[in-house]
Amino acid sequence: MANLKEEISKRRTFAIISHPDAGKTTLTEKFLLYGGAINLAGSVKGKKTAKHAVSDWMEIEKQRGISVTSSVLQFEYDGYCINILDTPGHQDFSEDTYRTLMAADSAVMVIDASKGVEAQTKKLFKVCLLRDIPIFTFINKMDRDANDPFELMDEIESVLGIATCPMNWPIGSGKEFRGVYDRRAKHVTTFTAFANGQKEVDSENLDVDSPELLGMVGDELFQTLQDDIELLDGASAEFDIEKVSHGKQTPVFFGSALTNFGIEIFLNYFLEMTSHPLPRKSDIGEISPFDKDFSAFVFKIQANMNKAHRDRIAFMRICSGKFEAGMDVYHIQGKKKLKLSQPQQLMAQERKILDEAYAGDIIGVFDPGIFSIGDTISVPGKTFAYEGIPTFAPEHFAKVRQVDTMKRKQFIKGVTQIAQEGAIQIFQEYNTGMEEIIVGVVGVLQFDVLKFRLENEYGVEIRMDTMPHEYIRWVTSPDTDVARINGTSDMKRVKDLKGNPLLLFIHEWAVNTVLDKNKGLELSEFGRW
Ligand code: G4P
Questions:
Q1: ipTM of the complex
Q2: Closest Cα partner for 440 from 409, 475, 401, 470?
Q3: Residue 291 among known ligand-binding residues
Q4: CATH, residue 143
Q5: What is the pLDDT of residues 460-511, one digit of tens each?
Q6: End-of-domain residue from the set 378, 410, 426
Q7: How far apart (Å, rounded) are the C-alpha atoms in residues 120 and 136?
Q8: Number of domains comprising the chain
C-alpha cells in the first residue's frame, strides 16, 4: 500500500494546449530533455521527421505523414512521474483533442508572444474550463519580437476570462531579450547564449538592482524593468494557489522553448504547484485515486490501428488504484467481467507493453468492439460509473449519402459504428428519416477518415457535400418545442443519434439572435454521450 501511495503521489498528468506553431512540440521536447528521456532535443515527432516515420497505423496516416491518434509521453523528472498527453493540433485536430483534455489533471497553455491568444487556444481553453483544471501559461518565443507583456496579460484576461498572475517577467524581447525576472526569488535569470536549443543554455542569476544587471541590459531596459516591477507589485493580482487549482487564475511564465530558456524554472514551478491525481466524480460520489481498487474510464477509441486485424484500441485514464496486466476487471456499461489483455502505453513513436500502471496513467488496451467513450472499468464487485464525457460541438458539416443505393444497409452500419467510436457525429434533419445524413466533425480530416473507412471497411462509396454551417447547439431547455422555435434564415433543426434536438447555424451571431427571439430557450455547445 505504501508503494501505491508513493507511486500515485508522484504522478502529474497534463496536456499542452496551444494554437498550431506556438511551440507545443518544441516545449514537449525540452521537457523530455530535462527528464533525460532524450539526450538531444529534436527527436520528438517533429513535422519533418513525421513524414518519414514508418507507421503501421492507418493507411491515411501514412499518406498524410501525420499522426491521427493522440498518445502519451511518460518520463521521470526530479522524483515525479510525468504523463504528457498529446493533443493533436495541426490538420489532425479533432474531437479526440478535446476528449484528451478530459483525461488530464491540468493544462499548460502555450502562447506565441507575437501572436497572443489564437483561435485554437481559445477552443481548447473552453474545454479545460468545463472541469476547472489548473492552467499554466507559458508565453513562448521571447527570443523573437514580442507583443508588450502587459498587453498580453490583458488579452488573456479579456479574451479567455481568467485572471493572470505573472510569475516571472521578461526583460526586452527579440534581439533585445535579456532574460526574465523571477518575482518570487526576486532575481533575474539572464538569457545569454544560443545553443540552437540542443542543450540547456548557460544563464546566471543576478540581483535585480545589481550593477552587473545594469551593465548587462543597459540603462533603458534596466529602468523599464524597475518600472514594470513596481507596476506589477502594485497592480497585478496576488498569487493564489486556491484560485490556480480551480482554474480561476493562471500563473504566467515567459521564455523561449527553442533556445531552452525558462523551461526548467517553468517545469519546477509547475510541478510544485500542481497536484497528484485528485478524486474523480462518479454516480456514487467521488472516488479517491488512492483507493486500492483499480478503476478507469475510456476517453478515446482508436480504430483500425492494424488493418489486418481490424482491431481497436481503447484509451483509458486510470482514476484509482493500480492496474496489473492480466487482472480481472469489470466493464460497467457492458455488465461483464473481463481481462484486459495487451495493455499498452503509446509513446511518441513506439508502443510498449505494460505490466503495471497507476492512477494518473493512461493505458491503451485492445478492444474487440465492446467499449464506448465514457465507459467505466472497475474491479469485479464494484459497480459505479464515472461522470460521462461531453460531446463537443462539431464545426464542419457535410451532407453524406451512398453512391450505390443498394448499399444502404452497409452505409448505415458504417456511419453508425464510426459515430459510436466518436470519430464523427451524425445528425438528421428534423422530421426526416435516414435518407440523407448530416455528418459533423471537429477537424476536417475526419471527413477523409470517414470516406476512407467506409470504402475500405464497409465497401461503400459515398458522396459528400459540405455545408456552409459551422455552429451547432444542443437545445437543453426541457420545455422547448423545437418545431416552434422562431429561427433565423440560416438555421436548421436537426437531431442526433439519440433523438436530441439541435440547431445548426451558418453565422455565429445567429445563435444569439435566436436566443433573444425565444424566451426560455437554452442552448449548449456540449452534449452528452
Ligand atoms: P507546435 O507543436 O505548437 O505546432 O509548434 P512547434 O513546436 O512545431 O514550433 C513551431 C515553429 O516555431 C518551429 O519552427 C519551431 O522551431 C519554432 N519555435 C518554437 N519555439 C520557439 C521559440 O522559443 N523561439 C523561436 N524563435 N522559435 C520557436 P519551424 O521553422 O516552423 O519548424 P521546424 O522547421 O523548426 O520544425
A1: 0.97
A2: 470
A3: no
A4: 3.40.50.300
A5: 999 999 999 999 999 999 999 999 999 999 999 999 988 899 999 999 999 9
A6: 378
A7: 16
A8: 3
